[in-house]
Amino acid sequence: MEVDPPPGWAADVETFVSPDRSIPEASRADASRAVVRLLRDGAISFLDLLRGMESALVTTEDARRARGVLLLAESVAGYASGAPDGADDASRSPRPLPASAANLLSQYFTSKLDDFAVVRAALLGCAAMLRARVSVSPEEGTNPGSVPHADPGAMTTTTNPKTTPAVTRLAALDMADRFFDAVHVPSLVQADRQRSYELLIALLSHAGAADEPDAVGPPLGTSTPSEQLECVVAACDGEKDPRCVLLVCELFQALPRAFCGAEGDDARALSKLDAHRAAFAAAAETLYDVVAAYFPVSFRPPPGDVVRVTHEQLAATLRGAMCASSAYAPWAVPHVLESVDGSKPGLVVDDALAALAACGSAFGRRAMAPHMRATWGALRRVLLNPPQGGEDLNAEGVARWATRMFAAEWATGGGGPGRVSLVDLALEDSCLKDAAAALSPSGVSEDGEENENAEKSGGGCCGGSGHDHDHDHDHGGGGGGCGNARPGGGATEGAAASASEVTKRGHALVAGAGRVLGAVAASGVAAASAAIARGLTPLLDAAGLGPTGDVERVKPGVAPLLLVLAMPTISGALDGSIFGGGEEETGTGTIGGAQGVLGACGPRLAGLFAAAAAKTIKGAGALTRDDGVEYVEDEEEAFVDASDGAILGIAGLRALTAFPTGHGLSSGDGAITAMRALVDAATRPDDPPPAFASSAANDEETTAYLAYVGDDVRRRAGEALGAAAASTRDPDMAAAAITHALPPLMKLCEECAGGAAARALAAAARVAAVSSAARKVATPILCAFATRPRDAAAFDAESWRALVDALAGTSDTASTTSTPGMLQRAATDAEGASPEEDAAAAALATTFLSPRAPAAPAGPEDASASASASDDGVVRLVRAAVAACAVETQEPIVAAAIEIVLAARERREEDGAFKAAAAALSATRPTTRVPSCVDAVRALVAVAVDDASSEDDATAASHAASALMHKHGGAADSALGPDSGVGAAKAAGAFAALRSPRGVRVVGGVLRALAARNDATAPALAAELASSLASEDRELAAGAAKALGAALSPSGGGPGVAKTFHGVEKPLFRQKLFSTTLPSILTPLRAGAADLAHRPARLSALVHLAAHAPTPAVLQRGDAVVPLLAEAMRALADRETPFADKDALASAITLTASFLSDERARDVLHAHADEHGGGIIDALCALGTASAAGRARRRTKPDERFAAGDPTIMSAVVRETALEALLAAVALPFSAVYPQRKAVMKAATAALDDPKRRVRMAAGRCREVWRKLDPKCAY
């Protein structure tokens, strides 16, 4: 029996089909979803829907009829799809249509293709029907036109999952005939064309029913296959909209599969498609022309694009259509190759190379074989002349594409008769012969002039008439053409100039050959071997490079070209040997991995790169200079390119030492040559200034430049040595680096003084930083150097500083910007230090803790400064050495240090032993037993807060106390007990000393040490400091505020609490300390004037905490912080109070700027802008003009002190930061900014007279931006 339709659904139908334009589209969409829901739930049937919509479907009103058909089409699509209601029905699977309704709906939508007014809806309905399925279960269709009531959830599954297409093949044929007869696709609007292409795709993918075994080809109508293809082509003709082009490309990807069958189809099925395949083959060129019209893709999304079609999306889809059938190959490959041209834009070439690779992959070796030479010709063009001046594609990108194609299976040629591979074509190309001519000694005479026969041969570096010019030059006569040297001048000058000309003329040819060889070599092991053996080796022979890389026979100007040739080749060969697998098939058979990639060429390259690293190859600078550069004399040229050859040589040696086992420097001589060259480069002193640097100013500038260049070369060489020593691809190379590089470095360290030893130590540190094996060899030796008696003639201040840096690192925290020391590496090594390292580190620490410790050398320039630096070196060495020791080794050292610390009160003068002992205690491991730890903490705190102690002793004592409390407390059985030594610190007067910077450092360090490991005493200590902010003693309150900030500071607690020295930092401890302490500060501040006297202290604490807290944590509390910013800045700028602090003031301004510029906090600041924006801007104006105010005050009150070092608003950093914050303040709402425009303009104008240039520049930027708010402003 039929079920009565639920009341009210007719209203949904009326809402959707009504032509009233005032009805929102959202309401129509809701009505459509409601109808679909009723259909899926079985509340109504499709026959019910048709009857209920009859008036809308047969009306003569076009708009209403179109909407009626559209509702029916959307109902079919929603019913058959998985999620018509969005999230509520997202879990539902596609559901079969009722069988009886399917046939009726198919006929109805097909009939409506003739009705132009409803064609869009009809196209949607036809496509939905072609995609829909009907069930073949016996239960389906028992109640024609309706679906029995059932649980909606149960309808998502079926006991019989067998389904068949909802549209029969006959119905699909009728639908296609009607479509091609009634619909002229090119004349439709974009949305209708889009529906048309979707319908064609659905027809091509229509599978047909199981009871139609005789069906042949796609149901594109009853016409012949050739006519069907003609109809498809006509429907797609002239399409330009990018959304529709995507569908056209998708349609043409499906077309070959429908007409020719898919890979894997059985022979019987394929035999039925003979007529279709013949028709497709006959029309292949026409079909390809349809999609070829869109290549290369010129579409770029316009600004504010709402279509959301990207260039990459179009290009990728078009490539799929162009490569959809191997029948397209005769036209597709030549068409694509036309765009592989370096003169075209980079994006066009990139698309063309991607399309070429796609063609090869899709068409296969057989179809690509006739086009192999043309393919290489196109690749050759872009490799030798890559696109210039664009970011879309450069020479490196072209080489990567070429490598992919060299490595592709289709590019191997197959080895058949007449078939060649891309690799063979590249290695036999004339560009290598041209490069050989440019490198050949026969082309250059002994004095640098080009031989006549070389010019006539036509194989030289470049073209040119070679005639002499009549005009004279300032330095030695006329300049010849491209083929002649410059006559006149001296023989030496002429040879040097001609050598430079040879380098410049041959550069393009040799660089192109290098790119070709590099691209070939990167495609695999076999190709790399071929590139070296058949490509690079003959070119090295042509240049006259000796068997061991000696460059004596290489003519002037040729050696730089060898570097240009060898570097890309070796880099490509390295990539090929690492990522290319084992032996590979090429066009000439299997070449290969048995003899390695470099083979006998390895030692030659090692010698060449070693000569470059030694700066014996001159003229490399000519490769990067303009043709019009004239050289005054040889010294100037040598100065300009002094480092170019060395950098290329070091890079080449690093590449040679990075090859996997069996593919690199197989002979011992080549590896030894490379290691010695790198050692020499890593320890070479700076070049002396050239003779042309005559004036004092020029000499200083030149010396600074040469020092920078020398440091850069030494750094590169040291890193190359480290990479070789740490090599995991070739253990033999790593062993060679340690065997042949470390001993010379250690010998230099032992025998030399000053710069030589310092350079050797820096190189050794770089090697040890990445190679644990090298570190284990070098550390004991250097520790022994550090403890030997000082001889000023053999161990000066410079080499001492280098030794400290090598062992203890250039920074205590071993940050990513510093080179970690060997002892630091040993301390953090997961495997621990070796026994030799452990013993050497213990001996070093013990030596410097003893009364007879050797004195560190001091420099002659400033005795006090040098002594302080030397003592600092001892402290760093002892700290790093103790950290590297094992627990058992640390304990006697720690006991000795404790004795020194406990005897500190008896000391009457400063000595290095106390600082060394404090450093030793700060580097202990958490499991090390520390005797008398409580007494030690008490003694250390006493020294740290004692005004009689030196600043260095106080700092060392504070850091040591923090480290002990960080590592040895928190438990009843720990050395400091459950209170972690807080009681001992208080007893020693830590809190009482908060009035001084030393007390702030101690208390802040203690809180940092405890909070970092989530100690239970940390919250109580933080609360005690927060309560001290209400103290009547303003000095004490100011100290408490600064101590809270010091606890969050990265340097708080000293290096002993860092991970490098076995400290522990719990995740998010700063966020936790900030969030737990801030409420106790903010709550009294919200009281307003009730606690006016203590507000400056709490505002100071707020800024100090926020200055070091993580930015997200501060921005999260923006609602509470922003209203206090202006008042906080005024409090920190008040020189009459102890809260004045220029560093904290700069932090407050930076915090304000963060709220102004950070997207995460802008909304918070805008919410408070009307109320507090004016106050913030006024405070920033006052701070930005502090210098001008200070000068005026000095004129009126000359007796007052205005020292630049005072913690006042006179800091240039504060003024600059305030002006930058004002610049960011223009992002505030207009209502808050506009009233302040004159005040800001006045302040910025006054700041233009600031004595500091950077402040004046900030004022100018601020003034220009704010002036736009009021162009008529007088300021």
UniProtKB/TrEMBL annotation:
GO terms for biological process: DNA repair; iron-sulfur cluster assembly; protein maturation. Residues 466-476 have a biased composition (Basic and acidic residues). Keywords: DNA damage, DNA repair, Nucleus, Repeat. It holds the Pfam family MMS19_C. It comes from Micromonas pusilla (strain CCMP1545). Residues 52-384 form the MMS19 N-terminal domain. Residues 874-1223 form the MMS19 C-terminal domain. GO terms for cellular component: cytosolic [4Fe-4S] assembly targeting complex; nucleus. It is found in: Nucleus. InterPro entries: MMS19 (IPR039920), MMS19_C (IPR024687), MMS19_N (IPR029240). This is MMS19 nucleotide excision repair protein.
